[in-house]
Amino acid sequence: MRISDRKMHPILKNQVIKTLAQTLADFKDPKDVEVFLKDFFNESELETFAKRLAVAYWLRKKRSYSNIRENLKVSSATIAVIQNLSKTPGFALAMKQVEAEEWANVWAERIKKFIRQ
């Protein structure tokens, strides 16, 4: 039996999830988060979660199902599931963070070019 097949008491489950969330929130350096995630999840688990975020991001960028399917090696069914999940508050928060980081990177490059002139 796998760990995930055994159900925890809902109150304990909520506390455990909050502890994981707080642990992630307490990291100050994204590199530390990456080290933690690579140690905490096996390669397949980490790739699954990363692909979910990438699918949601690419759907938001209006990429086609076929493009996403080919590049990320996911099924159309997975893309459809993520498309539905992308309407939830958690995914909206994640996309806001990804887009803020993307915006910051674009402007950082523009400023660097301006300063070099």
UniProtKB/TrEMBL annotation:
<protein>
    <recommendedName>
        <fullName>TrpR like protein, YerC/YecD</fullName>
    </recommendedName>
</protein>
<dbReference type="GO" id="GO:0003700">
    <property type="term" value="F:DNA-binding transcription factor activity"/>
</dbReference>
<dbReference type="InterPro" id="IPR038116">
    <property type="entry name" value="TrpR-like_sf"/>
</dbReference>
<dbReference type="InterPro" id="IPR000831">
    <property type="entry name" value="Trp_repress"/>
</dbReference>
<dbReference type="InterPro" id="IPR010921">
    <property type="entry name" value="Trp_repressor/repl_initiator"/>
</dbReference>
<dbReference type="GO" id="GO:0043565">
    <property type="term" value="F:sequence-specific DNA binding"/>
</dbReference>
<dbReference type="Pfam" id="PF01371">
    <property type="entry name" value="Trp_repressor"/>
</dbReference>
